[in-house]
Design brief:
Helix content is about 60%, strand content about 15%. It is an alpha+beta fold. α1 runs antiparallel to α2.
């Protein structure tokens, strides 16, 4: 039994290190998402910080600010969704589908 516990602890430490590396890699990654057929582009880091917003001239209509706001929101939400998906895939590779950190506790 003591050998099995040692093995389990080593595996847990290895998994923890892999998860830390994957988290760091994801935080450094940038995701770009678009809305309105590419008229609005939002770039966001894995830390969910927006680093760039690019607008096509045709969506900047002072008489329709609401549409522009909706497009920016849609692009930002899509970037967040992509980051979360990348994070989930990364953690799933490490944990072998055990459900991430919470699945181990």
């Amino acid at each position: 039994m003591p050998g099995n516990m040692n093995n389990l602890m080593k595996q847990a430490q290895k998994m923890q290190k892999q998860m830390e590396e994957a988290t760091k890699e994801l935080e450094e990654k940038e995701i770009t998402a678009t809305a309105g057929g590419g008229a609005v582009e939002v770039t966001m880091t894995g830390k969910k910080e927006i680093t760039k917003v690019k607008l096509a001239e045709e969506v900047v209509d002072p008489d329709d600010i609401e549409m522009l706001e909706d497009l920016i929101m849609a692009a930002a939400n899509e970037a967040i969704r992509q980051i979360e998906e990348a994070s989930q895939q990364s953690m799933s590779r490490i944990t072998g589908g055990l459900g991430g950190i919470n699945g181990l506790l």
